[in-house]
Give the backbone structure.
Amino acid sequence: MKNSIMQNESRIYVAGHMGMVGSAIVRELKSLGFCNLILRTRLELDLLDEEAVNNFFNQEKPEYVFSAAAKVGGMKAFVEYPADFLFENLQIQNNIIWSAHKFAVNKLLFLSTSSIYPQGCPQPMQEEYIMTGKVDPSNESYAVAKIAGMELCRMISRQYGRNFISCASTNVYGENDSFDPKSSRIVASLLNRFHQAKLANAPEVEIWGTGEARREFICVKDLAKACIFLMNNFDFSDQLYFVNVGSGEDIKIADLAQLIKETVGYEGKIIWDVSKPEGRSSKLLDVSKINKLGWKSEISLAKGIKEFYNWYNRLDQRR
């Protein structure tokens, strides 16, 4: 395997740099002095186009790749558009990973999700539990695609001696998240809905489920730092080809909603629609392996959501 340590002048491609996670990785890389970043918008490079991706890798010859490009969304989007999520994510990640292999990229980090773990998985979820059972049907298509991407990285590394690794992130939130009702993640969705309800003096906000489900969250700033840390400090092995990335703490959705409501300053009621799905009862990652490598989450949920809301307000003022 080739040298896995990035240098400031290394040619680094961040796929999906306009998205929440990709843009955070770019900001962090720039703050650390990396000056040779290769970035392409969707209009400049269609990652669904195999030939275009091949040509890009052949011409630009990146040395390191952060594969953060994906079709993402919340539970509502996963339920309504499962085929779209499966097809587009498989196509995007296959094109990036295989081209990275063909053109001898030094190292690739593939970003995955905690949704890869089986429904009813023991808590906290350890890396060894992957593919020991069926994933949650509420986001099955996204999870299956991500498992396939991780396995492609593993098989390429085993067969061809590449240094292609993966990380499974818990629920992420923060700057550059989407607020589209059809695709937004839970923190962004709730923050936007409480804010809009506050502006409209709406008496109540309705949320899916009972509020009893527990989830873990990580600020995108923390996730970006973890990705760069892993690129420089974690190498592929048959025994450990991916690690979990999370805060190591979970919270009831009801308590999360209350925290966001208070952060926004909304004074109406929360109504729970118990007829709607809320996914598995708990989803907490075991982060002991990445902690032992030397990385730990630093941003608390309360601080992260406050910073996220401040950014949201600045964004709202520019519209």
Remarks:
- The chain has ten helices and twelve strands.
- The chain has a mean pLDDT of 94.
- The first strand starts at residue 12 and ends at 15.
- The CA atoms of residues 38 and 60 lie 8 Å apart.
